[in-house]
Write a structure and sequence with these properties.
Shape: rod-shaped
Structural class: alpha+beta
Number of strands: 5
Number of helices: 3
């Protein structure tokens, strides 16, 4: 034990400081009060540390959520640009010099209830998918047409289905001719 008055080391159980005579019972009471105050301060510091740790963890979770959200938006933006590159693109055999519109205008002209989306296939191909309705042998038919896209912005027709049934190359070629011929020289002010 240390004397509170002079700082001298006092033997345990001594009633008085052998250096200054300060009564050790006062020191024990002072030490108990000091220890009690220190315990309260330690508890407060621990609570503050826990709050700081909780805030840091929450901050990390929020940051991760923001990064994931931005990644989703960025990839959505990338998919959006892939759809735009197909819609604004032209088939090699149907150029604008010959009066043909871009793919998007031609398809929107030919089909009803159209929709476009992009995704990465299970085998890592970048696909832009078009869906629309049209009359096929006088029956309303759902058409799903997929374009495979490439990094240079080019694309090819990858697959076509009518009412969920895959179509052969001749049917696809005939459909494409019909779509583009109907759209050639169309009024683009609609």
């Amino acid at each position: 034990m240390i004397c509170k008055k002079c700082g001298n080391q006092i033997k345990e159980g001594a009633k008085f400081c052998n250096n200054c005579g300060y009564e050790s019972s006062n020191m024990n009471q002072d030490n108990r009060q000091y220890n009690s105050n220190m315990n309260q301060q330690d508890q407060q510091q621990n609570q503050q540390q826990k709050k700081k740790t909780s805030k840091i963890i929450i901050g990390i979770i929020v940051t991760i959520a923001i990064i994931v959200g931005l990644s989703a938006l960025a990839s959505g933006g990338d998919y959006s640009s892939k759809v735009s590159s197909v819609k604004n693109g032209y088939f090699q055999a149907y150029s604008s010099d010959d009066g043909y519109p871009n793919v998007g205008d031609a398809f929107e002209n030919y089909f009803d209830d159209t929709s476009w989306k992009a995704f990465t296939s299970d085998d890592d191909m970048e696909i832009v998918e078009f869906n629309g309705k049209f009359l096929y042998y006088d029956d309303e038919t759902d058409c799903c047409l997929q374009f495979q896209t490439y990094e240079d912005g080019s694309f090819d027709i990858y697959a076509v289905e009518f009412n969920g049934i895959p179509q052969d190359k001749l049917t696809i070629s005939t459909l494409l001719d019909d779509i583009m011929d109907e759209a050639q020289y169309m009024d683009r002010n609609d």
